[in-house]
Amino acid sequence: MIRSPLNDSEWEAYFNLRFELLRAPWNQPKGSEQTIDEKVHKHFAYFNLKNEIIGVGRLDKIDEYTSQIRFMATLKTQQRQGIGSALINKIELSAKQDGSNQIFLHARENALDFYLKLGYKTDSMSYILFDRIQHYLMIKSI
């Protein structure tokens, strides 16, 4: 099931997964997995049958017609099982419902193939995170 976390323990698990997968491997401090404006964005968590969060993603509304996907992550042991694709599909549907017709993201180099398979087009190299993780701007019309 994909939905937003509903209570304190689910929010803790949601942010902990983001930290463990997207920040801890690069020795970043706890808290770096969050931004000061978390409350204004839409959050998506993939819950398994044990009600554990095994995948996450965030949708940011940029302007009337544009949205951005951020903080996508799936547990390594659960990758290649359709969880990330299911999250993206749910996020894109939400973006469409909010009036967006274009969605973009900054993909880590190791995730390029995943997003290409979902119809995203590589626009350009964007930035290097933590002085070592190359990101690419990817765009999709929805």
Describe the protein in words.
With 142 residues, this protein is α+β, with helices and mostly antiparallel strands. It is 25% helix and 37% strand. It has one domain: Gcn5-related N-acetyltransferase (GNAT) (Aminopeptidase, 3-Layer(aba) Sandwich). The protein contains 3 helices and 7 strands. A 7-stranded mixed beta sheet has the order 1-2-3-4-5-7-6, with helices on both faces. Helix 2 links the parallel strand 4 and strand 5 (102-108). It is globular and about 35 Å long. The mean pLDDT is 94.
When the domains are counted, the total is 1
- CA-CA gap between termini: 23 Å
Mean pLDDT: 94
Helix fraction bin = 25-40%
CATH-scheme architecture: 3-Layer(aba) Sandwich
Task: Give the full name of the CATH homologous superfamily.
Answer: Gcn5-related N-acetyltransferase (GNAT)
Largest sheet, strands/sense/barrel = 7 strands, mixed
- Could you state the order of secondary-structure elements as H and E? EHEEEHEHEE
Strand order of the largest sheet: 1-2-3-4-5-7-6
Please name the CATH topology. Aminopeptidase
Structural category is alpha+beta
How large, in whole angstroms, is the Cα Rg? 14 Å
Task: Outline the low-pLDDT stretches.
Answer: none
CATH class category name: Alpha Beta
Strand content: 35-45%
- Basic shape: globular
Strand elements, count: 7
Instruction: Note the total helix count.
Output: 3
